[in-house]
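Worked example

This section walks through a single chain of length 505. The input is the sequence exactly as stored; nothing has been trimmed or padded.
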Amino acid sequence: MFVRSDFRLEPDDLEQLDTLGISPEKFYRDLERFAMGFPPTEVDRPCTPGDGILQLSDEEVRRYLAAYEHASSGRPVTKFVPASGAATRMFRELLAARDERTLNPTAQDCLRQLERFAFYDALRLTLRERGFDLDGLRRSGTFETILDFLLFGRGLGYATVPKALLPFHRYPAGARTAFEEHLVEALQYSCDGRGVARAHFTISSEHSEAFHDRFQLVRSLYETNSRHLDVTFSNQLDSTQTPAVDERNTPIRDRRGRLVLRPAGHGALLENLNALQADVVFIKNIDNVVPDRLRETTVRYKKALAGLLITLEAQTHDALRALRQHPTSDQRRDLFRWAGEQLNLKAPAGLEQSPEGERWLIERLNRPLRVCGMVKNQGEPGGGPFWIRSRNGELSLQIVEKSQINLNDPAQQEALEASTHFNPVDLVCALRDVDGRPFDLMRYVDEEAGMTTVKSNDGKQIKALELPGLWNGSMAGWNTVFVEVPLSTFNPVKVLTDLLRPEHQ
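Given that input, the structure is written out below as tokens.
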């Protein structure tokens, strides 16, 4: 094990780590990662329609919709939403304008169109309660007061509110938060035969009360006599935190002398997903929602993806049962062909005829399965679908971030530029094996697919460590199918002005 000769954990450090459930061995392994880095992902080629990406016909969509409607009534379905992110990034330009006492172009644009935001009425009311008139402040150009009440604790405090609890859309009955839009979606495509829609949100512990209070406040608005919500929450485990280091890879300390530890990215949420012991799970980001008038296409394709998943899962289980009976060489050949055509499993040359071939196929089929929606690339930042070559030479389908690719390699740069599709985080997953037992999802992680990032701490630049991403390296060992979905199903809100797009009005 690599351990820096000039750093040793002190007794107080060991006590701090023990409180969080972090072993000294894990801490030192994390330090080793900073020193050694992560190898780049070797991209063979981008996935394209007909080569790794399915394009469903209208008839196939209808067939998979029916398959899902039939199967979902008899098995538990859960919607899993990472929702712990703060809205700081959304309000970055407004925070800068307040600090610098000068309106930048983004802040000007937002203030000029303030009435188009779903939070406009709440802001106006809050100001009125403190003796201010919003329209008068706008006419006089007193933007500091408006921003104070929008961003900070004396008013709405949106700069520190979770993005999930921000009003996204305006309706005649009032504004809806992103959290509420996900509840409405869950009722439309994740109900079981008893009409119960399960939704699980990963949230920050400091905001737990706010989420619980919001749910109790609004649940009666969306539940009906026949459809009910079963909503649960979990926090990212303290034990997944990783050390922050300086440019020499030495752990840094805060002003009290304690080690600075940071959340390890959305890959840490694999622990939360694993703990659910779930069956069929939809995964979607908190900020990718639309108002009611645009929801039909989203719901239609969510169900179609799930129908395809359930169909492939049933075929996979049939194949595993056939393999348990030691099939003939012709039957085994047919199973290898099916696995290659339907699940993109590319067996190493000669393995099909080898005595090891049957064991290889059983092991590869008996894994978690995911069907991932992909949209045509419109220049959004983020990952995409690729054929990648693993360290043992095998090809597989993976969602790869740009930061994982060696852009100094012309061939890798060319593969990236040839990419046609983008990952909108639109997944549906089957998480139980052929015997109905939950998979241990921690077994299928590519530990080499993490990354180091540059962050800021007390005004100083530091390095942070992120675990393999939830839908990237954390699912590297899953069986994967990519499906093209309409661009209208992808409407993320990364910055505040995204809420001014027609899709969110």
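What to look for: The longest strand covers residues 196-203.
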